[in-house]
Amino acid sequence: MTDAGIGPLLLVGCGKMGGAMLEGWHARGLTTAGCVVVEPSADPRIADLAGIRLHADAEAIAADFRPGVVVLAVKPQSMDAVLPAYRRFAGPDTVFLSIAAGKTIGYFERGLGAVPIVRAMPNTPAAVGEGMTVAVPNAQVTAAQRQACDRLLAAVGEIAWVEEEGLIDAVTAVSGGGPAYVFLLIECLAEAGREAGLPAELAMRLARTTVAGSGALVRQSAEPAATLRRNVTSPNGTTQEALAVLMAPDGLQPLMTRAIAAATRRSRELAG
């Protein structure tokens, strides 16, 4: 990758998230000649992508390779063992972009030094190009490096930036874990339909398709979610009866608020 004065790209870890990112980059032409992927258990077909050089470990990378961006996409629990091998790339001309949950900028600065570091929190819909990622840079990241990271992250969905790293804990709770909450909603909606008398298979189909379609509608609409909700709700109708339960003082909002608070608290504990 040579965008905005940034040199070749090094992707460390090509599992589900790293693989999804690589596919997005390749589709957008961001993996030009010289892109290196390190993944011991990678699909060999990755090497067939134009411009990709696949290695099983860091030692196999050419001694004269100088990446402009190092994307750290390994699991957080593996980072302690993986990171030291990439310290040789640390310097002002290389930005390290981490998508490892719970690993702070301070963690990487202790391992790499005072070099450009971007901490990002994506979510699993990135696997289908519909992710939401929030990123925060340290003081060493240049405007060109931030632009390069923005393009890489935007290849798998939407991207937002914050300047306060502490906000990443709430981001982790809302969008990082958010897909799990939506999947639980599908489960609960399907089970409620089954208890109302629907065949289990039909109830699940209705729940999955309704949630997926509602997500597509809210993405394409310029209307606020509250307006879309009201558009579905006829006065004194069936939806209003259901919403009276969900919007009660002990309904969905206080439950979700407690859930997000619990996840945010846990994220801070893990980062500490």
CATH-level-4 superfamily name of the largest domain: NAD(P)-binding Rossmann-like Domain
Q: What is the helical fraction, as a range of percent?
A: 40-55%
Mean pLDDT: 92
Structural class: alpha/beta
CATH class descriptor name of the largest domain: Alpha Beta
Give unreliable regions as ranges. Answer: 1-5
What topology does this entry show?
Elements: E1 9-12, H1 16-27, E2 35-38, E3 52-55, E4 69-72, H2 79-82, E5 95-98, H3 105-112, E6 117-121, E7 131-137, H4 143-154, E8 157-161, H5 167-176, H6 178-195, H7 200-220, H8 225-232, H9 238-246, H10 252-271
Parallel strand pairs: 1-2, 1-4, 2-3, 4-5, 5-6, 7-8
Antiparallel strand pairs: 6-7
Helix pairs in contact: 5-10, 6-7
Fold and architecture overview:
The chain starts with 8 loop residues before the first strand and ends with a helix. The chain has two domains: about 160 residues, Rossmann fold (3-Layer(aba) Sandwich), CATH 3.40.50.720; about 90 residues, ProC C-terminal domain-like fold. The relative contact order is 0.10. Helices cover about 45% and strands about 15% of the residues. Helix 5 crosses helix 10 and helix 6 packs across helix 7. The N terminus is likely disordered. The protein has an eight-stranded mixed beta sheet with strand order 3-2-1-4-5-6-7-8, sandwiched between helices. Strand 5, helix 3 and strand 6 form a beta-alpha-beta unit. The chain is built from ten helices and eight strands. It has about 270 residues and is an alpha/beta fold.
